[in-house]
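Re-run with default settings, no changes from the original entry. Doing this only to confirm the output is reproducible before filing.
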Amino acid sequence: MAEGFIERGHEVWGCSRSGDAINRLRRRWGPPQQFDVVDVSRDEQVAAWAGRAAEAGFVADLVINNAGLVNRNRPLWQVPSEEFEQVIAVNITGVANCIRHFVPPMVERGQGVIVNFSSGWGRSTSPEVAAYCATKWAIEGLSRALAQELPSGMAAVPLNPGIIDTDMLRSCFGESARSYPSPSDWATRAVPFLLSLGPRHNGQALTVPGEDDA
């Protein structure tokens, strides 16, 4: 996604808990692009990151909350409390932290779109991923409530990205994950779709179009 937005002339601020991933992005793209190591589940880290954005005069037009973890496949009663809490912390608290610190300047300006990544498992369920399902159902409700709180001219959207061949999917699907689009192929459809979102989509539960819909 970062590559797609930058190629279209947008300034991108992004974060990851992985220093290796951030360093790769920094080597490829310099200013005005900004990539930082941030754990979104830690409010103080998000606050500091948003503070640096404010000092640079950056106000987002589009906030994408896509950080996510999935629990290891197992019945809910076998999911360790530490693992359950980590999934909740990233998938729900992380979204709230980013909204808390990046959305106020957007509200003051009266424009902008917040996209919170949900999942097919935020609108349906499967066994052995109850913790993950719980977080994505929460994102659906959080996003629709946020949509009712925003001023006219803004939008909040819960977005099902579809099924993508990622490390996280492989933890659930194993090698069969290879049959789904790669992140780069998915991004060629997702980026223009995300850029098309506006106030008319406020509160709508959306899904990134599939290859047959592109």
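The chain has a mean pLDDT of 93. The first strand starts at residue 13 and ends at 16.
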